[in-house]
Structure formats: C-alpha cells, structure tokens
Amino acid sequence: MTTTTRQKNKPTKSSFEWKWIASVLLAALCGYIANTPFPAVPSPIPTGNVSHFHHVSEIRQELVNLLGEERISMNDTVRDEYSKDASHFTPVQPEGVAFPKTSEEVQEIVKICAKYKVPIVPYGVGSSLEGHVLPIHKGLTISFRLMKQVIEINKVDHEVSVQPGINRKALNDWLKPHGFWFPIDPGADSTIGGMASTRASGTTAVGYGTMKENVITMKVVLADGSLIRTASKAPKSSSGYDLTKLIIGSEGTLGVITEITLRIYPEPPVVSAAIAQFPDVSSAGSLVAQLRRTGTKVQRIELLNTAAMNAVNRKFSLGLAEVPSLFIELHGPDAVEVQSRMSLIEAAVAENKGFSFKSTTDSVERDNLWKARHRAYWASIALREGAKLWVTDVCTPLSHLSAVIRETEEDFASSFLIGPIVGHVGDGNFHLMVPLMVQDPNEVREMERINDRLIRRAIGYNGTCSGEHGVGIGKIPYVELEHGNGVDVMRKIKRALDPDNILNPGKLFVL
After folding, report:
1. Residues facing residue 392 across a β-bridge
2. Per-residue pLDDT averaged across 309-319, rounded?
3. One-letter-per-residue 3-state SS of 122-163
C-alpha cells in the first residue's frame, strides 16, 4: 500500500500578515453582525410555486370524493379570503380550501395531504396578528367555518366540549342561559381552536389564567391522520407527558385540533369597574406591584399610556386626562366583598400618586368607565387616515414592566411614529398599536427598528417575545434568542411528529 504525504508549506512572514489582517477583518465583521439588528419581520414568501392540485389531479379528486364539490374550493375569491389574517404581512393564497364538518373528515383530509406531502394550514377566522395562518408554502387550508358546534356541557364539573370553529362570543351566548361563561378574552372574536393554537389570553388572564390553564383536553389529528385525545378529564393527573400543553401554543405545527374541552365558570354575581390615573407609568406600575404583593385579587387591570389616552380622546371626545391610566375590574360573590377589595385598591391608588379614581357596579356606568380601553384599537387606527395598525406584544416579569414600557416610550419620543401602548399589566403583558403607512418603506423600517429593540429589551429582562399573540412568521428571528438550545428540542419534537413538515410549515422557528 502506498501512502502519500502532503508536504506542508512553511509559513512566511507575508502569510502571517495576511492571516492577521483576515482575522481582524473577520472579528470586525462578527462584531458588526452581532451589533446590527436583524430584520424583525421576515418576508412571508412561499418557497416554491409548485401546484399540488393541478399537477397531482388525484388529490383534488380524493378531496371531492370525501367532501363533495361544494366543500372543496379552488375558487380565486375563496382562496383570496383565506390568504390573509389581521397582520400586516403580504397575503398568500392557498391552492385550495377544504370545509370539513367532523373530526373524521379532518382525519381523512390529513391522510390525503400526507399521502401527497401537501402542506396544511388550519384556519379559524383569521384574527391572528403574526401571520400564523398565511400559507407561505402554499398547499391546502382547512377552514373550520362548518365546525362550530357545542358538543356537550357538564355543569357539575364546570366544563364544555366544543368544535374548534366556534367563536368566543358565540360560545358565551350559548353558555349564558346555563349560568356559565368562558372568561378568556383576547379582544378579537377569535375561534376557540385558534385561541388554543396560539395559547391566547387577554384582559382577564390576571384573574382566570390563559388558554393553557383553561383547556382540559383536546382531540387532535396528527400528521399521519391518526386521532389522539391529549388527556383525560380528571381534575388532576400525574400520568404521562402533558400532551395538552404541548399542543396548546404549537400554532398548528404539531397537529390539527378538532375538539376542545374547556373549563367554564359561573357568571359572577357582582362586577365592579374602576379607573385611576397617574402622573407616569412607573407610578401605575407600582400600584400593580403593590396589589400583587398584598394579594389583592383583580380580574382585569389594563394600562393605557399617554399616547393611547390621547388617541381615545381625539376619536371619541372622552375628556379624560391624557396621562397613564389604569382600568380595573373586580368580580365577586356579593357587593360587600367586592366593595371591600375596591376600597383597598382606592387607598393603594392614593399611596402611588394616583388621582381621579372612580368606581361603579352599575353596568351602564361600567361600560362608560371602560370606554377608553374598549375603543383603544379603533382610536389608534384613526390617528392617521389610511394607516394600517401594526400590533405587537411582549411580556416581562412584573418587576421589570415599568422599565420596559418607559424605555419603549423613549424610543417613540425620538421617532416620527406614534406609540400608543395598551397593557394587560397585571401579568406583565403589553401591546404596541402603531398606525403605519405600510406602503412607505421608511415607516416600515422604523417600525421594524422599534419592534426589534422592544423584543430584545423584553428578552433582556427575562421576558418573552410574545405574551399572547404567538410567533407565527413575525417573531421567528427571536425564538432562538429567547429559548437558546431549547429550540433544538422543539425541532426534534416537530420532526418526530411531522417528519414531512406538512403541518403549517414555516411557522414558530426555522426547521
């Protein structure tokens, strides 16, 4: 056997110089990259335009055989309807839209798509804010428009089972005659399936928790078409992995939810609302921290900053002082207990430099007190004619919330953009609602800069890139910054459950 030995060249002085120069340049480049914010918003461009329907006619025929011509559509008008959500991203049409009515039909649809490796995007009403339901890899959208049924209610165990397409408000209308309600309120009239997929929460999370705490079990169709139940209905269990919490917040990337059992609550006999105003965000934040520290329970506590208060005054002529304001709501078994808590809160407001405190249990007066909070979204859009609202959120530990909001307001003070902030401050979550001319690249770049700084700031304070909106495509660049090598574990789970990457591909993280 002949062995060949490669002669090593003896390094010369000039080669050392070039290596030294190269190393300096490389270090400089790395430093530049490390200190240059990467785009916070990746462009949702499909990776390919291969048509799964027109080149593989079998799939269309199989779907028609399953659903009939009337429940599988490739009509441009229908496809356009399912090309967008409530986000600012460019719409992308799916190649087709399917309208199942049962879990069994969803199973068969997924089996057909798995057979041909066709991407699947589950779709509720399109209220998501980070591009979750945009079919960026084309394929088939599964609409849950025809899956809106309440399956059963169990009043003894305080639970209700529903199909994923039922809207939050419709569910509460159905529950009301039974004396119950489902309190999770993300603001939009979202579907229950979409709320589970994004781990939604909203204004009542401080009092009732998020979807994570209020979903008992689900039926889920996996990427191979098999149907699983994620848990029993036992009040507690120490048996096996918690598959329910794995699926909640997975944004349709691990399975398609076809049935959800929810925890429901008796309607509160007494509801009291209040408003308090403060000279600055720090004082309002101090009140929230004090209520948490003293164990004073609230069911809602919402912040509007000065810019948001200015917006609601301009649009609705409310005549409120344009200063940081807290909107508070208490639920209780009787008027005495609720008033006792409200009196403690009123005293705490005064201790934290608050003023203009008002409270009431009258339903009409409550609505008037909360008018500013309920109308903040529309008021923010109205600040600039023709603008589209860029809505984003972060969540931080309560101890850092005031600092993050204050530093974010400083960013807007040095920007030409307007920065209304609305916060579910009882659990450290707040939103920017920025009116933006999305056709103006300068405005988009400026918003990307502010958004990038906001998210990095929140993560730097041990917070998260999203408290309730989810990741979708908009926050993919920050998932690894937040979770580190935990994302590798997520990738392994995704590959194990969806080896062909057909379930809402291109969302949550780069696979």
Report:
1. 432
2. 95
3. EECCCCCCCCCCCCCCCCEEEECCCCCCEEEEECCCCEEEEC
pLDDT at residue 44 is higher than 80: no
Average pLDDT over residues 404-418: 97
- What is the token pair recorded at 6? 């490669």
Let me know the angle formed at the C-alpha of 191 by 190 and 196, rounded to the nearest 5 degrees: 100
Half-sphere exposure of 496 (CA within 13 A, CB side): 6
Tokens of 195: 């709320």
Contact in structure between 182 and 264 (CB atoms under 8 Å): yes
For the stretch 215-224, what's the b/e string if a residue is b when 16 or more beta carbons lie within 10 angstroms of its beta carbon? Answer: bbbbbbbbbe
255-270 pLDDT per residue, tens: 999 999 999 999 999 9
* Residue 425: DSSP 8-state: G
* pLDDT at residue 42 is higher than 70: no
> Looking at residue 228, what is its pLDDT?
98
Residue 199 phi, psi dihedral angles, 5° rounding: 55, 50
Q: Which residue matches tokens 């008027």?
A: 335
* Burial of residue 501 (number of CB atoms within 10 Å: 0-12, 13-18, 19+): middle
**Tokens in use for 189?**
């009239």
Euclidean distance between CA atoms 399 and 101, whole angstroms: 47
Tokens of 159: 């639970």
User: Residues 382-403: pLDDT tens digits?
Assistant: 999 999 999 999 999 999 999 9
Between 297 and 48, where is the model more confident? Answer: 297
Does residue 185 carry a pLDDT above 90?
yes
Cβ-proximal residues to 77 (8 Å cutoff; 6+ apart), any chain? none
Instruction: Report how far residue 61's alpha carbon sits from residue 251's, in angstroms, rounded to the nearest whole number.
Output: 28
Nearest-angstrom CA–CA distance, 440 and 445: 9
